[in-house]
Amino acid sequence: MQLLKSTVGRKILMAITGQLMVLFVIVHLLGNSTIFVGADWLNAYAKHLHDLGPFVWVFRLAMLTFFGVHVIFGTLLTLENNTANPQKYAVNNKLEATFSSENMIWTGLLMAAFVVYHLLHFTVRVTNPEISQGIDAVGRFNVYAMVTGSFQQGIIAFIYIGAMIALFLHLSHGVQSFFQTMGWNNACTRPVISTIGKVVAVVLLVGYASIPLFIFTGILKG
Amino acid sequence: MSDHKTMTLTLIVWRQKGPNAPGKFETYTAKGITEHHSFLEMLDVVNEDLIKSGKEPIVFDHDCREGICGMCSQVINGVPHGGQERTTVCQLHMRKFKDGDTIYIEPWRAKAFPIHKDLVVDRSAYDTIIQAGGYTSCHTGGVPDGNAVLIPKPDADYAMDAAECIGCGACAAACPNSSAMLFTSAKVAQLAALPQGKAEAAERVKNMLETMQECGFGNCSNHYECQAACPKGVNVKFIAKLNREYLKSLAS
């Protein structure tokens, strides 16, 4: 297929799958925010999701496809780029490239590893069985107790906050990059889109990192 | 010249005898350099000293020395063309440097630009990309009437901005991925903006991109380092335009 071979075709696949995952993390954060309203809200939200039945699996398979395409092509393109650029300069003076744009592969792989851990932790629930099997007063699975129980442990809170910093770095380049790749950009819109991308990255960092931070510091009680 | 203050600089220059020879950095002292010397004239002075002392002069590319031919190609202190906005190496002047400065001079580094000798690289990969579609096919013959094909002024301006590219190679040299996307996009955008070029737009973008890959250039990942290094100010908006042209080509 043209799209899978062409340099721009693969870039477009990276951009679209990446952006779909950004939409997912935005919705995921909105769902997670119910934790600030109270245990009842979070547990009810989780129950609603689970009651969707087969749709949950359709959604999971779609996400797995986006994730797979993004990781495979991201790795492939990076390997190709390293081949195209075998000898580095003795002095490197970057004018526009940023730490975030130059380390997409590393922040990306860090997050890929994190997603595996996150699923084992909160979805399959095998990493901390002692706190992830509770049932609340009305017989629902007690997500609130699982989350607060986890983030009261410094190491888990630290891992989650670290992963969210990787997400922030990845998206400060990734969001604006999507618009450029899709061709929805020109000299006037580029600085605006770039700022919007960074704002999205900051909002997601603050939103996501606040949960483990609030629980670990005891602001949000278990 | 004698009424000018002169400066002494330390140059750390990449020396390589041939395409397959191993290269290394050599240190030279540039003496008697005035602020009015261009960077290439400074190298001429150094080379004269090297020749007088029986040493092999530093080989570098140059031609017009007025910033329009795209021949000079040196990475100075880690930036292609030295980092002065919209300036080629030949138009970079020594007033940008201070007495006692140490300057690193390296050739373009990209797999698709193999080193010939010292600072001279083979940039024929850019010609190969142009041969793949950087033209319009048209009947030749009598001179066409000046206003037979009307082109709106904004379109003509847009095409001219893209056509400013002199094919020097700085974009691929600056790119962390050694991608030639800015160069390729400038030609794709220029021709796609004009009625004469629109007919072959879909074929052109596919062929030029394919050839860019075959030549060994990397993939663009939107670092925008190319635009910052471009001595002609070619804008990355043309890469967005290329991406649009590519998406359109999928439908044709």
UniProtKB/TrEMBL annotation, chain B:
Q: Which UniProt keywords apply?
A: Iron, Iron-sulfur, Metal-binding
Task: Tell me which Pfam families the record gives.
Answer: Fer2_3, Fer4_7
Occurrences of domain 4Fe-4S ferredoxin-type (ranges): 156-186
Q: Does the record bear Iron-sulfur in its keywords?
A: yes
Tell me which cofactor or cofactors this protein depends on. [3Fe-4S] cluster; [2Fe-2S] cluster
**Superkingdom of the source?**
Bacteria
Q: Does the keyword DNA repair apply?
A: no
Q: Family assignment?
A: Belongs to the succinate dehydrogenase/fumarate reductase iron-sulfur protein family.
PANTHER family for the chain: SUCCINATE DEHYDROGENASE, SUCCINATE DEHYDROGENASE IRON-SULFUR PROTEIN
Q: What is this protein called?
A: Succinate dehydrogenase/fumarate reductase iron-sulfur subunit
Q: What is the lineage of its organism?
A: Bacteria, Pseudomonadati, Thermodesulfobacteriota, Desulfuromonadia, Geobacterales
